[in-house]
């Protein structure tokens, strides 16, 4: 079988190395080029010795990298890079999978507000598809550009999807006048591989804190998607916290139900909705997820609990670098190229 | 000045060693005896080498320890021990400070339900005072028995106190028909020093999980106290989580406000309410607490944030072994014996 | 291709779950049965939710498990179990791979001294082969019983192998009158999944200590193997320490060289010796290993450094649960059944 | 009693905040000024909320700070700063305590080699005293400038002091032809509060590595001091490693003994040598130190173990920010001003 020729732009961050880890083990992918402005000329395995003996690549300057010869290019870059290159690539028949935010928000004004830059290719944005297999699989198949779901959004959206779909379908399940609360906690790799005092080990380990309380960039994305699921505008209160772990997102979601909502069997609803999803695991009634249950794997695990009759508590875990980012991007590549979605993604979580 | 003669029952757990750390540095206390059934005969500093050179004590069997000669006895024991000894001690004029739950819940049926044992001294319970200086200072002064506030309850109650007091005073501030949500996270020392697989380093570090979702023993205590503050029955959804840190509790509290509530200046309210509290710090507007800001100290730090106009988010940190337990107990001792409350409790948090 | 029928005895510890993780992803192995006295009847995925959806097995009582129908049985048990079952299994043509110490030490008196039990099958011990592919590959191929190398021993022996082989071959390289020093550090999973206060998260995290200074069970094994490599009795000072990490062993080895030894190019020697070893990586000159470079993978990475002309410092990392235990055992299975050694063991280290 | 007027130059790093923590609790010291070029104008408690309510200071620009009005100025700065200001301060009668390396090495060529800068005040250096109370107490009393011992050096020097003093006194105890090996491990705060990718939480936690293997700046300092103790040139192999903890140094020291050395009772020797040292604890025979036994305290704890008859293993723990730096500096201040050495330094280690 001919392998998919893959390019990675921005390979020196955490989503970049995670793409390397996953794609190196992918039976149908071949990494043709990986770029890094700052590390051009450095052997990948010198920078990431965990890949010694497994990757025979040198970081290339993005200008010199043969990206146009690829079948697909992943952008593991800061916001703004993918949109500067998407047009040229797609015109050359190269598919684009952006792990950053350039193609997530449909509203360019919202994009500008949160990312402090103009959107430079609104036409491509219109055709771009939001990259979340569980909800967009069919549309993703034929897309040229995918704007992959963010890490927090993936956990919160998959946690709420069956509930809000039901709300849309039968109406009046969630008390839509009340805000949905997502109290999320993320391991520190979510903040990226950047030298910053607040991310130092001596600052962040043996510690726990909230951040971005005043407004986090992932909020508009989540609201956009939840509202899409629900068929009406949803209010969300999203409070992110920083865990002293490397990987893992844990979202504790609180939803107020209507009287009609209180009568539903959500355990059954979720199990049915996700029965055929290879990477979404609805845990048994009474079981509780832990971040280590997905460490290094592409799974999301979800548990449901009813406190007070009208309050549904939804607990979701994912590995922010896998299902929350690079793993989901590889899953998207599998969809783009007609492969089984689990190809190259069958790593089992590392436990203990 | 004559020193307070102190006894500690159950000195081999984490609240026990924390009492030792604090009382050893207390200028007006003298530890007369410390008991441990399992460790009787062991030198304290052999078991806890962090105390080498500072404590010249041997664990005694509780039956042989001169507890009745003490001025005050701390119970750093499992639930049920303090109530079995409180009568004899108080009859001998010895004050009792229980760090466990024997004297927290006023309703003995509730106690039985959550702690799976009969309350054996309801008469003493009636006279016992709930140990939380910020709300019970005056009553605590003359008490013979104090049932100290629990670790989670301290963080949640102090986080809600000014708000609920206002609600009681002027009415209709909090939307009392909605449940208050306390999404709490605790370091692992809160689970105590007991050999259990789920508390192993290889199980609990680099991990994050919820637990006790179905109902935690601290719930009835918190509801009892919040309802007292509010002047009416309060509904609470309390979801505890386990942090991969040794110490620290972080409670993120979500409260839905009425229209009248939305008009209040909570920052000012909290600052005023706690202006004279030596250990409660209302952080500046926009600042956010972190658990390391109280590591090893008796402070609680609180920040307030208004999301959606009708949703107040309250963020609270404490060290579960200090303000959440042994430190607050020493503060209570200071109250009982007429000392300044900060005596022996001026340790500054260890940072980094 | 017909799959290898595998049994696992003692599946509820860390080496057991790690075997499950690896064998589940192994293309030529089929787990037929897994036993656990304490967990008989429990679904494996209920105990280890990281395996949900990937393992459809129930723990069986060892007495009822169809071990004799297997092609190979792994013992992930405490010391003493494998030797009680090895005879019956091998007589039925079932190969035995013991991850514990029953078949490591050739001297039954040494075994008795360190493990406080008689060796019950010295005849089988005589025919058993020490399980370390890099040194015993050829003998392992035809063995019925393998006593797999321990975790610390693997790191120290692979760190010293080329040097001591040279010493044996040309003589007088290492100053054999001086003790070799192995200052080793292990993540806490090396202590196993047992409820013990000293292994608690609140005790072992944010801490570092030495242990077993007076003598560790791995010493006689290491001395046995090093002496075999060197062709003469070697003296070893082995000081194990406990790291506040879950996985990973780091051995810093200090060897005093003779004048003849000082003239050698050890970097070249090691690179040549391990050139064809799929899992031993001699790092580039000047590079230094870190435990995260092998986290979750079967690699050993080695760096050499010459301090003082006559002192060779050898730095070795491995994942104690993979190359130090279950991974090496799967590698051994591959050898026993004529498969490429890397089959099912190509996981790349999880970084970050 | 009149308080000592204290200035701190370079207050925004970890040794700076640790000085703040300790001096704020010191009964005889008053912090008059604290400087930080980068943070001038910032309230100290805004930068370090752990000090909220306890420190009423604003970082000042070093040029505007009233340093000359102080009795003593601590330099918690990068190397090179103290020597640029020492002359002016001492001429004004202000004592200088440098926590960096400007006044540690007596040989200015060595200083230049390791710190890549010329020494600018060799005359002051000649009169400066090395700041290690256990060996230099008498000389420190009258010094105007103290070059405080480094963090690693403190642990290694105190670990070897009694042994080398005996060697000097009676001769031929240590096999001086062999190198002494110090395998040291440090928590990450030792690397300082600087934004660097290799110090990120996602890089350094759940990891262990060696570094500076080719030569660490602390080597010449340690060799200088050990040679002074021994009365002859000592050879040292020092391999530092990075622990995934915030605080704590653990040095495992290996010394080869002569036949005469083998006859000594080192346990007794150490106990006697340190009997009157308030901060050096020789642990009981058989006991082993752990870094948490000194977390946040000014103690050093030492254990001795004899492996092979001729190999002495010495295990030493300290908190790198307290006894390894700021605590020892406060101890030095106490000596300079005739106070009991333990003043303000009686914090007990935080355990758990």
UniProtKB/TrEMBL annotation, chains A, B, C, D:
GO BP of this protein: L-arginine biosynthetic process
Name the GO cellular-component terms. cytoplasm
- Keyword check for Transcription regulation: no
One MF term from GO for this chain? NADP+ binding
The record's keywords, sorted A to Z, are: Amino-acid biosynthesis, Arginine biosynthesis, Cytoplasm, NADP, Oxidoreductase
Instruction: State the source organism's domain of life.
Output: Bacteria
* Catalytic residues in the record: 151
Which cellular compartments is it found in?
Cytoplasm
Main enzyme class: oxidoreductase
Q: What is its EC number?
A: 1.2.1.38
Q: Which residues form a coiled coil?
A: none
Pathway membership: Amino-acid biosynthesis; L-arginine biosynthesis; N(2)-acetyl-L-ornithine from L-glutamate: step 3/4
The residues covered by the Semialdehyde dehydrogenase NAD-binding domain are: 5-143
**Homology family:** Belongs to the NAGSA dehydrogenase family. Type 1 subfamily.
Protein name (record): N-acetyl-gamma-glutamyl-phosphate reductase
To which species is this protein native? Turicimonas muris
Query: Gene behind this chain?
Result: argC
